[in-house]
Amino acid sequence: MRLRTVALVVTLALGLLAAPLHAEAQQVGKVYRIGLLHSVSSAVTLFTGAFRQGIRELGYVEGKNYGLEIRARGAKTDRLSNLAAELVRLKVDIIVTVGFPALRAAKEATSTIPIVMITGSDPVKRGIVASMAHPGGSITGVFTMTVELSGKRLELLAEIVPGAKRIAVITTRRRMAAREEIELEAAARTLGVKLQILKARDPNAIDRAFLAMSKERAEALIMIPSARYVQHRERIIKHAA
After folding, report:
1. Strands (E), the chain
2. Which of 112, 123, 148, 182 has most Cβ atoms within 10 angstroms of its Cβ?
3. Which residue, of 123, 143, 163, is where some domain finishes?
4. How far apart are CA 237 and CA 164, in angstroms?
5. Domain stops at, among 143, 175, 198
6. Residue 215 contacts by C-beta under 8 Å, 6 or more apart in sequence?
7. What residues have CB less than 8 Å from 196, skipping those under 6 apart?
8. What is the DSSP code string of 110-145?
9. Distance (Å, rounded) from C-alpha 47 to C-alpha 33?
10. Which residues are 16's β-sheet partners?
11. What distances in angstroms separate CA 109 from CA 22, 74, 82, 84, one per listed residue?
C-alpha cells in the first residue's frame, strides 16, 4: 500500500525548492545530498518510500543526481540533536524533517542549510518560523494543521455518516491538546453528537480501544493523525471493517 498522502506532502514540499535545483541539476556529475531526519524511527521505511516516490515524480533519479542520508530517532529522545548535527557535518544540500522534534533539532543545528519541514505542530506558535506567508530564514515546507482542523474533521465525518450520534476519537497522546479538545467538543455540541475519546499508542491499546468503542456502539471514528497509526494502519482498517 502506497502512502499517497505522504507522497503528496513531500512532493509539494520539495516542489518549493525544485525550480532552482532543476536548473542547477544540469551541471554534469552534480549529485545533491538530501538529509532525511525522522522523529519516529518506526515509520522510517514507510515515509522514505513515499519520499522516494515524490521526488521521482519531480524528475530526480536516486544515485544519478541525488543521494539520501537517512537518520531517525531511536529509543533515546535526545539523539535527534546528534543526528541533525551529523547531517550538517556531512554537508547535505537540504534537510527534510518529518515531525516537529526533528524540525526543532535541524533548526538548532544549522541556519544555512535549507530545511523542508513536514509537521503537525504550528511552527509559528512554536517559534520556528516568523509566519506562514513569510517564514523567513532557511525553513519552508508543509504544516498539516492537525489541531486546527480537528473540528472540521468532525463536521466532514457527520456529512459522510449522517445521523451518527456516537463518534469515537482515538489519539496517541496521554492527554489531548487543549486546543484540539476544544475544537472537537465545540463541533460536537453544534452537531449534537457524543464523543468517546480513547488513547491508544501501541497495537494492544488499539485493540482495547476498538473493543471499548464497540461496547459504546460508536457509529463512526476519527483517528487523530500520528505516524504510529500509519505504522499500524492494516490493524486499524481490519478493526474498523
Report:
1. 32-38, 66-72, 94-98, 115-119, 139-143, 166-171, 194-199, 220-223
2. 123
3. 143
4. 19
5. 143
6. none
7. 166, 167, 168, 169, 212, 213, 216, 218
8. -SSS-EEEEESS-TTTTTSSS-SS---TTEEEEE--
9. 18
10. none
11. 26, 18, 9, 6
Mean pLDDT of 147-176: 85
Cα(36)–Cα(145) distance, integer angstroms: 21
Cα gap 205→199, rounded to integer Å? 8
From the number of C-beta atoms within 10 Å of its C-beta (0-12, 13-18, 19+), residue 74 rates as: exposed
Indicate if 116 and 200 belong to the same structural domain.
Answer: no
pLDDT at position 112 is: 92
pLDDT at 27: 53
CATH of the domain at 46: 3.40.50.2300
CB atoms within 10 A of CB 183: 20
State what percent of residues in the chain have pLDDT above 90: 34
CA pair distance 132, 84, nearest whole angstrom: 24
Using the predicted structure, report yes or no on whether residue 144 has a pLDDT greater than 70: yes
Range 203-226 average pLDDT: 92
Domain membership of residue 37 as a residue range: 4-143
* pTM, two decimal places: 0.71
Inter-helix orientation angle 44-57/4-24, to 10°: 50
